[in-house]
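Show me any protein, keeping tokens residue-aligned.
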Amino acid sequence: MNQILISSGFPWLNVLVALPLAGALILLVLSRDALARWLALAITILNALCTLPLLSGFDRSSTAFQFAHLYAWIPQLRINYAVGVDGISILLVALTTLIMPLCVLASWTYIQKRVTAFMVCLLVMESAMIGVFIALDFVLFYIFWEFMLIPMYLLIAIWGGPRKNYASIKFFLYTLAGSVLLLVAIIALYLHNGTFFIPSMMWREYGLGFQLLVFLAFFLAFAIKVPMFPFHTWLPAAHVEAPTAGSVLLASILLKMGTYGFLRFCLPITPDASLLLATPLLWLSIAGIIYGGFTALAQQDMKKLIAYSSVGHMGFVTLGIFVFNLHGLQGAMLQMINHGITTGALFLCIGMIYERNHSRELTHAAGLGPYMPWFATFFTLFSLSSFAFPGTNSFIGEFLVLAGSFARKPEVALAAIPGALLAAAYMLRLLQKVIWGGVNNPDQSGMKDLHLREILVLAPLLLFVFWIGLGPQPFLDYMNPTLADLLQQLQQWQQAHPGTGLNWSIFQ
């Protein structure tokens, strides 16, 4: 156990989960809208600061779960409260705590009704999302996974747009269907292993038939969450109707839970099934990249355009995962972080336009550049990041994914390149229309430029765009030992269990 878990003195992970929940309870008791904004902001900032000891104290050379705590919860069923972080999860925890204060600030004037309830939903969401990334017990993981659905459903159903009922129900039903399959897989693994402790389920001898069934359940649950093509149809509706903070959380954090599930569960628990089905999943990723690009190119609704772009961007993430080499996995992890930063920032920008003209239509936002120079600057830089312009964060991620893909299957990498070109096409179209427009632009002279609060929301995300783009090594240092160990384990497994159809020599 000491080789798997490394405990720390102070329970930082418990604080990260408990602090937002405590804040939500306080807000429910106080029930004062004027105070709710400030208290939610203070709690989310404090939670972000509590992430700093994790980042500074994390041993980047270790592959074990660090800052771990394990307490007996229901001993009769061998259910424990077990939490910990490794090189895969710590960056996602940090991304979550970075995004949350920005969501509160972005909702400062956007949300005018039921402010307290809105902030309670945000805080509960933060606890659940962090819990998903740190849980090392499957029951605990599933509780956090399900718990997250309720506040997100409420965010869309109460504070959403005109079609909020349709969007919220579709989001709930899709994700709930995936959750049911996930529960079936968890129960099957428990009956086989007699424990819910996730590390104890990894790299165990399961029959191929059992692995395929478990993998299928995992795949459907996580593919819906990503979402992979063709399980994506809930995403545009949810994004379009959700308030700005809801769209940011969906894009920045919730979609990453699907790809996190592939890395955390599918590869180490069902390795034979993962290796066997790798090629179809690679081509399914390509389908998502191409489909997302073409569909985004046709959109007039700005939020819907960014939503479909997420289908394409997340296709690059799944592509990097299932090429099974270090460059691919590094690129996938970086793209998870990059997409959270860049796409979250784009949704924030569109929300700022919506607050001013109450429209998401591209034609109504045409020609804003001369009247909103601060906005034009931020929007331009985030757009360049979105289509992986050199020097930005997404360029590094996509480059590593494509490099890994060429090593695994050159034809797959070549098929992904049109997706990158399509991303440039739809983002440049969006950028040109919003900043310059055409000859028949609406009168934008009354549009006010970004004020200080909005600049403070966007500035931290822009910092990470160029930090990762120009100096990604600190981020790679966190993930490299864990990813390298995962690949080594997978290679050793395949060598000990030949017949899955994957030739490891092509990775060398």
Summary: The first helix runs from residue 12 to 30.
